[in-house]
Amino acid sequence: MSGATGEAEGTGLRVAFDRRLKLEFHGATVTSDAGLLAFRELDDTLGLTALAAELLHDPRTGKNGRHTLLAQFRQAVFGRVAGYEDVNDADRLGRDPAMRWVVGGRAVTDHAASTSQMGRFETDAMTSPANLTTLADLCGEWIGRVQARRARTRLVLDIDGSVSPTYGTQEGTAYNGHFACTCYHPLFVFNQDGDLERCALRPGNVHSAHGWRDVLDPVVARYRARALRRLLRADAAFALPEVYEYLEAAGFRYAIRLPANQVLQTHVAHLLQRPVGRPPHYVRRFYASFRYRAQSWDRARRVVAKVEWHPGELYPRVGFIVTNLRRAAKKVVAFYNGRGTAEQWIKEGKHAVKWTRLSCTTFRANAVRLQLHALAYNLANFLRTLALPTVIADWSLTSLREKVVKIGAKVVAHGRYLVFQMAEVAVPRELFEDILARIARLRPLDPVPC
User: Fold this and answer.
1) Residue 186 domain-assigned?
2) Which domain holds residue 280?
3) pLDDT tens, residue by residue, 82-105
4) Residue 257 included in any domain
5) Are strands 253-258 and 229-234 parallel, antiparallel or unpaired?
6) Domain count, the chain
7) Which of 78, 226, 315, 413 yields a CA-CA distance of 20 to 30 A from 87?
8) How wide is the angle at C-alpha 184 spanned by C-alphas 232 and 373, nearest 5°?
9) So what's the pLDDT on residue 416?
10) How far is CA 236 from CA 3, 127, 245, 320, in A?
């Protein structure tokens, strides 16, 4: 049935953040970033960028600002979700219809911020100590809103350092012998859902565990009052007595890789002798558990060892894990091996969100960029974990960007609506409709009138 204006009812999908928008699928092949509208719908449902606008301070004192702080913040975050890792493309993106409607406000009828305006936003407005601290805290604030939609009985944290190669004279960059390049050495903390709880930019020549407490403290504090079983995994760089004592005092169970030494190997000497007989064509694994106290430790702690004999290798592979878990040694190793997913999430941040693009001159401006990349990563991961249908739930963030964000659309203006005629290629209408429906179910219900 047609309405009073001659428009057919039920022919388009609707989004709640702006009722003037209708989404129709007509198979048009026009390149754009129309899939960003789904991310904007999730943002509106959870109130993420609106929260950022409440917490960030706008240092501009004039009254003739063309773009609000919220508009520029949205452009910075959603641009990174779409794969535009710096402000070089801001002029073109500012005229893109999808980006204009995502940004909202004046951009809808005019255009979004230009390259120079976004440059000043990232290198001036956001670099104040207060705003940089707020940006670092925003990841946790956003995750807090998402966790309210998840039923979790335990928290698993993974802490790990990474490398961001540099090719200029950025402040704080230095040669790192382990990575064999000139770089920054950021530190990341993830939870078991792949959300980036917190990150910090560090100079390239610091130890891998440098500043661990500054990054971990706010995360531990946010979860202190929640009834969760708390666990943490880390590699050998964090095998420090102060880390063990901190985690034990905070009520965390942990599994941390322990560098091998002669005393540790003495405890598993019986497993280091080559088994008698012809070697099989499969890996033989042996486990051990014992108490051990290093000279710098305040007391003895449990150590789990894994010894692997691989076909064709003369010597075994030996690994040690210090832990306060009470489960069997094999299960402790299995839990620790889950740390590999954090390394995968770091790779996704590098390739999908491109958070290694830290090309500003000053260290503080690059720290702002890392935090904006982290927020873009989290927004994409929220959509993946909360709104993707089962058939595509295992998509990487790169696939999400290339197949969902990069949906081509033809924009048609009507008297009451602006219609995005979206191409059905990797994501058909039914799939996109399912994504919007899942997002709609996350939205709080309006109170029922008495």
Assistant:
1) no
2) 251-338
3) 999 889 889 988 888 899 999 998
4) yes
5) parallel
6) 1
7) 413
8) 70
9) 85
10) 67, 33, 16, 9
